[in-house]
Every structure is written in C-alpha cells, then in structure tokens.
Amino acid sequence: MSEDPAAITPLPFSTRTTNLAHFLTRNALRLGDRPAIRHEERALTWAELDARVTALAMAFRERFALRAGDRVLVQSPNNVEITETMLACWRIGAVWVPSNYRQRPDEVAYQAVKADVALMVCEAGFPEHASACLDAAPGLNEVVCIGGGFGTAYDDLLDEFGGATLNDADVQRDDPCWLFFTSGSTGKPKAVVLTHGQMTFTTLNHLNDLMPGTGPDDVSLVVAPLSHGAGMHQLVNIAAGAVSVLMPSGRFDPEAAWRLVEQHRVTNLFTVPTIVKLLTEHDAVDRFDHASLRYVIYAGAPMYREDQKHALRKLGSVLVQYFGLGEVTGAITVLPPDEHHLDDSPQARVGTCGFERTGMHVSIQDDDGAQLNPTETGEICVTGPAVCAGYFRDETANEKAFRDGWFRTGDLGHLDAQGYLFITGRSSDMYISGGSNVYPREIEEVLLTHAAIGEVAVLGVPDRRWGEVGLAVCVATDGASVSDDELNALLAPRLAKYKWPQRYVFLDEMPKTGYGKITKRLVRDELDARGLLQEGGS
Question: What would the pLDDT profile of 398-420 be if each residue is shown by its tens digit?
C-alpha cells in the first residue's frame, strides 16, 4: 500500500536555499577581471568587489559582533559602498535596511527604531541623521562612516580586514535579507520583510520577464536610488554578471545620463515614468547615441499615454513596463517591448500595465474577497513566490494586507478577457461625486493629451452639494497657458460631466517623492499648505 502523501515528513534540507551573496561569489570566480561597478572615476572588477565585500563582512562580524538576522541601517546616496554594504550583510546572513537618503533625520531615526537596528552605515554628508539614529534607537551604539568624519571610518575597516576569506552564510528560504521601507503614502512607512528565497525567485523572474538574454556583456545605467527598486534591478544585473554604471553624484542630469549611455554602450536601465519623461524630453536624447539600449524599464507609477508615445518615438521599441509594489518586489505584471504600440488600435490595449508575471497569479476581488469577472473593477490581489513574508513586527498591517493567502495591493483595476491588467488607481484615490465613483486616472489621461499640460494630478475634495468633486492640479509645459474652459472642452466628448474637475490649480512644479513619483498625499499636503484645498481657494 502506498504511503499517504499527507503523512510524508519534509526532508531536513527542504528549505535551504542559496545566499544572495553567492551571485557575487560566482562572478568573482568566473568573471573576476571584468568590470562590476563604475562610478565617476572609480571602477571595480568582480574580484575586487568580492574582496572588499568580504573585508566589510568580516568587520561586521568581528568588530561589531553582528550575527545572522541582525539589521544594518544604511543612509547614503548612490555609490559603490551602498552595494558593498548590501552584499556584506547578506554574506554573513544579516539584514540590509536602506533608507531613502532624502528623508529628514527624524524620519530615518523612525526607521532605525522600527527595524531595531544593530549598526548604521552612514555617508559623511549626513552627520545629523547619524546622531538622530544613535539618540533614538536603543540597540544602536556605533556608526560606520563612508568618507570618514565621525564614527568608524569605512575605509579603515576595509584596510584592517583586507585579505580575509569568508564563505557565504548558510541561509533558509524564508530568512530575511532586506527590510524594504514603503514610501509611506498613507501613514508611517512599514518595513516589508524580503527573504533570500523570495528574492532569488524575483531575480530570475526579472531576468526572464523584463530583460531576457541579459548577461556579462550587458551594461546597466543606475538612474534611481539603490535603496528601493533600483537596488532590486542592480541585484538582477549582478546575477547576470552585467556591469552597473552609477550616475554622477548630485542632482539628476539627463544630459549626463545620455552621455554615459553613449560612452559605455548601456543596454538597460530602470527608472520611474517621470524620469523617462525627463530623459526623452531633454534635447540630449537627440545628441547622444543610444542605439545600444535594449530595455528601458519603468515602474513605480503608471505612465501616461502621451508620455509613453513620446518615449517610443524617441527610443524605439525598448520600453518595458512592470507593475509591482515593494511587498511583491515589483513582480506582478509586465508589458514587454513588442506590446508597446504608438497607435491606439485595440491591439495596443491603451492603459494596460501588462499581463501576469511568470509564476504569479493576479485576482480582482470585491470587498469580501470574491473574485470578480473580466472588466469588473475591484481590488488587485496577487499571490506567488514574489510576495513578501509580511511586515516586520506589525501584525495589524499583516492582517489588513493578507486575506486567504492573497496580498491585497490597495490598487483598483480590472482584467480584460485576455488577462491584461488595467489599473484604475489607488482605492484611496477614488472619490464619490453625487453618488458616482470617480477614478482620477482616466481624467488625468485625457488632460495630458493637451499640449499645454505637462503633469497633472486629480484629487477628490469636499463639496457641499455633491459630497466630493474633482480638483485638477496641473503643471504647464514651458511657456504654455490654457484656460479652464479649454480643458473642459477637451474632456467633454470623452468623459461624463460629473467626472470633470470643478477647479483647476496650476503649480510651477509638482510635488514628488524622493524617488520621483507623484503621490496624491504630497500634492494634497502642498495645496493645504497654500490654502488651496478649500472651496474658493486661489
């Protein structure tokens, strides 16, 4: 008689997995003399990067007594050291906790406390952040300073432990490797627990679905902060053995980006739609050779159709869109290059963010968790190996975000009959005007077709008669002007009148997060500070 499968005991090694630092280990063996990272005048080979990471990992273990599971906070703009810190944490089984370096000292201190960090690595330009974290976090007693000036000098540690050897720590599939802080669009940021097994799956998924065929001959331009999505993208390039080229320090410069693309024959880059817009609207896009580009990957927010068309005209068939949150390490849907179209025919599926990523399952659900039919709008939910292990020490958030094994994204949308996903907006963005649901994104898409409108965000604001009405916050293109009546005339043939904004407000610049995303919370805060949210505000 055969044994009951339900009674089979799992093998003792069934949850053992590869340490993410092993991507570096194998590159150092196979590609040792080839470049791994370039930043301004610096260039490191894979062998040199591996040696530096080992020295730093030994310092973490021997000097600071870090052990598996300990958290290491990093406050730094993009540089070589931020990647070394990430890999050194993983090499000893510790957990990498990168902050958004543009945050205030008190905001980073909140993350230090939330993550219960044991060590902080801080770039020399942020002494106030280091002091704030030391004062706030009870388990934090020492800071490693990149560049020197306070705490323990980063380079001194590399000198002290240079030449050391160290194997990658044994890890289990569900061992944490990265606490990914959400952007905090509502309330305080939450710490998403990413694990070695989850991240290994996502790395392979990105290689398969976003930039197939990527290998050691490829070159990636790092445009966005490595603390968030760009860090995941860099890990994918590390896994492939591709070199990463970092942008020069300081404010983002589109011309410098295109110069690097030409100089290093860049083949892929990851960024957000607002940066794609900046890159393709700058005249440098026509002055530098970018024929080497195979994949320009954008995510983090939907890309408006007019911006998408402009980028296609400038760059050709290289755009790759994906939809995904930090909780799902970006792996929910993909729209590959051959499904980006200039025309608005049915084949283009205008407005879609693509189809399910390999190994992932998307479900549109109502408030009770029932699955909805194609074209019906509900909450976008997802399950699969890319979903995080939950929020760090936050059971309330876990209970709210997970239901029957599904992660609830908080985004609204629908699937068409072929399984392509269309995002309507955040559930918190939707407003009800006169009893009817209004989804800001469809209004924004139409307004952006006007040549005078560069950026727009539509908010629901209180109204005595209708409960809520739309307020359109606009940024005009250079030197352009447009009246409310002109914009309403644009909307008239496309949208029901109850969806039209009741007011238009023009700003010189749209508020954005440190990662270049427009969030309704920041826009609302800016309007509130100017007294423009109230009826009759001007």
Answer: 999 999 999 999 888 999 999 99
